[in-house]
DNA sequence: CTGAAAGCGCTTACAG
DNA sequence: CTGAAAGCGCTTACAG
């Protein structure tokens, strides 16, 4: 299938009249080589269209120049703009530093896919996107002392390299904004309640509600999964419990989109009237620019690009033996959308 | 960083009292091994927690057990649900057949990222998602005789393995449905006009319009990029040219979402009235379930899962020397959404 | 049914 | 500044 014959370092060496060692050193850009032979070698490499085999190199060096990207197994995750932006930037960053990205999944309570990659030496390190409480993959990686960095926070383990937004603080600030805007009854709709992100944001919400002398009401709180369907159903339930809410805090772009769908669909098209009294929605990411002139939208932008870029650079720094901080916090931005 | 010492085939052999060859054969599940030694070897492997090095294996076999997934470089692509679903299923399929997925990009007129993967022997074959006219990556892959399969159609080259929906036919059927629903003036909003998908769908639209004695009107046609912003702006432009259109054909979920945003935002919230007279929208994927009681939505479902799965299986079949068809067409489904 | 040996294509002490 | 040799961890004819 492939070209008849792969050109190897030996062929380059022969043609250039030097040894394999010398060619290897030329490629590796070692200092102690005469410019003359170096030039000769490079010209032969070009002529022969030579490319070192990454595989052979890996075996000799015991490094693969691959990083594994571990994705959550739930389908919804892939619909999240956060994932998309991160994947792209991680891939770019890795590539700029000479690494490639290999995909792996983090199934429910199963680490096999990651374990296979690690044990088979297919990756040098791993980036994990989103973790749950007592994440088995984290436990496995930590126990086998394998280099990895987590996008997000590890609740259970302290000695984990991580890049995260301060989600508790972000959600406190966000909730406070709703209160400052005059909201008296603020609902909360979150994703998977085992997800660390959801937990942090929920805590921020709770603290702010309590600190401001409002009472926490279970009927106004929904936590399910990271999907627009969840948003749609959650807001429906909440409104059934109490139609007088005037604000909502939402933890995720997909959920937000489901909530907006619900609201837009439940306005009378005849009269333009709506029984929905929501004045302000605070959310983490909107996904697209759905609007509604009656509702103020406050968005927390967690900067998935910086998170992705930092996680990747941190991992590679780690692999290259550089000093890295254990925990890095990336700023968030809050802004009004309409 | 890693565990003190990696366990190798040699250590297993020694402990089991056999040679490396025999261990290798046991792993490879060769027939000619006595059950006794096989058992012995497996128990030692378990005991030592041995895992063969994929790297060493690759070097010996000259295969990497990796497939490259080549993604378009434009950011918008990543927001497309089609991409997300495909990535997931491709990854699953590859994994079930013992392969891993490596990400690569197909930059504007540049094949470097793919070329590097191929030349460095990091992948055995490549899956390309979406191609443009005279795609340089396709040319490179074909010229170097490297195994690959294209999701989509190759306009320029016939001897390319591909898995595709019949987009011309699908868009003909779709457009005809709008006509049957009574539409008299049907606009068209498409993505990048160099993209083969867009071209095919546009052709389907054009043919149907002409076959039904309607006249093609440039003012009603917009082709730009695969983004919701494009949808928003395109519908705005078209309506400015002619506010009497009563149907639209849209080639992409993101574009659709932008169009719906526009329509929902340009209805008077006071009176519920709208100057927009669109009765039916035909689209390829909706992304989410945005609705509008005034508008009938007809969706073509291109089944990205089957496309992803087939492309991956075809590639691996190819790598394993099985017979595969050059072109495979996957059925689409048309259904009314509301 | 099993082992010794050569080979996959690199890198890297070691010696000069 | 350069080369010969050993090694990375496997596989696979070849011989028995």
Automatic annotation (TrEMBL), chains A, B:
<keyword id="KW-0805">Transcription regulation</keyword>
<dbReference type="InterPro" id="IPR001761">
    <property type="entry name" value="Peripla_BP/Lac1_sug-bd_dom"/>
</dbReference>
<dbReference type="InterPro" id="IPR000843">
    <property type="entry name" value="HTH_LacI"/>
</dbReference>
<dbReference type="InterPro" id="IPR010982">
    <property type="entry name" value="Lambda_DNA-bd_dom_sf"/>
</dbReference>
<feature type="domain" description="HTH lacI-type">
    <location>
        <begin position="7"/>
        <end position="61"/>
    </location>
</feature>
<dbReference type="GO" id="GO:0003700">
    <property type="term" value="F:DNA-binding transcription factor activity"/>
</dbReference>
<protein>
    <submittedName>
        <fullName>LacI family transcriptional regulator</fullName>
    </submittedName>
</protein>
<dbReference type="Pfam" id="PF00356">
    <property type="entry name" value="LacI"/>
</dbReference>
<keyword id="KW-0238">DNA-binding</keyword>
<keyword id="KW-0804">Transcription</keyword>
<dbReference type="Pfam" id="PF00532">
    <property type="entry name" value="Peripla_BP_1"/>
</dbReference>
<dbReference type="InterPro" id="IPR028082">
    <property type="entry name" value="Peripla_BP_I"/>
</dbReference>
<dbReference type="GO" id="GO:0000976">
    <property type="term" value="F:transcription cis-regulatory region binding"/>
</dbReference>
């Amino acid at each position: 299938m492939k070209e008849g014959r792969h050109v190897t370092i030996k062929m380059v060496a022969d043609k250039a009249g030097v040894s394999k060692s010398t060619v290897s050193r030329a490629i590796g850009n070692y200092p102690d080589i005469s410019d003359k032979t170096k030039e000769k070698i490079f010209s032969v490499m070009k002529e022969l269209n030579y490319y070192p085999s990454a595989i052979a190199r890996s075996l000799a060096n015991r490094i693969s120049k691959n990083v594994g990207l571990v994705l959550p197994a739930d389908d919804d995750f892939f619909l999240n703009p956060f994932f998309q932006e991160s994947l792209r930037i991680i891939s770019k960053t890795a590539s700029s530093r000479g690494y490639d990205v290999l995909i792996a999944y983090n199934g429910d309570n199963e680490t096999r896919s990651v374990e296979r990659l690690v044990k088979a030496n297919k990756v040098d390190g791993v980036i994990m996107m989103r973790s749950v409480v007592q994440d088995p993959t984290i436990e496995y990686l930590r126990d086998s002392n394998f280099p990895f960095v987590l996008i997000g926070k590890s609740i259970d383990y302290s000695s984990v390299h991580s890049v995260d937004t301060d989600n508790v603080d972000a959600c406190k600030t966000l909730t406070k904004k709703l209160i400052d805007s005059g909201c008296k009854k603020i609902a909360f709709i979150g994703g998977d309640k085992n997800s660390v992100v959801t937990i942090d944001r929920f805590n921020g919400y709770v603290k702010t509600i309590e600190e401001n002398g409002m009472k926490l009401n279970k009927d106004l709180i929904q936590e399910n999964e990271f999907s627009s369907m969840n948003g749609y159903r959650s807001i429906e339930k909440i409104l059934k419990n109490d139609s007088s809410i005037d604000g909502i805090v939402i933890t995720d772009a997909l959920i937000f989109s489901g909530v907006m769908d619900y609201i837009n669909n439940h306005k009378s098209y005849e009269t333009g009237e709506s029984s929905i009294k929501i004045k302000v929605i605070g959310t983490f990411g909107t996904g697209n620019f759905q609007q509604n002139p009656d509702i103020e939208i406050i968005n927390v932008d967690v900067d998935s690009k910086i998170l992705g870029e930092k996680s990747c650079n941190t991992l590679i720094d780690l692999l290259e033996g550089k000093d890295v901080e254990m925990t890095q916090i990336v700023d968030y931005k809050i802004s009004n959308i309409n």
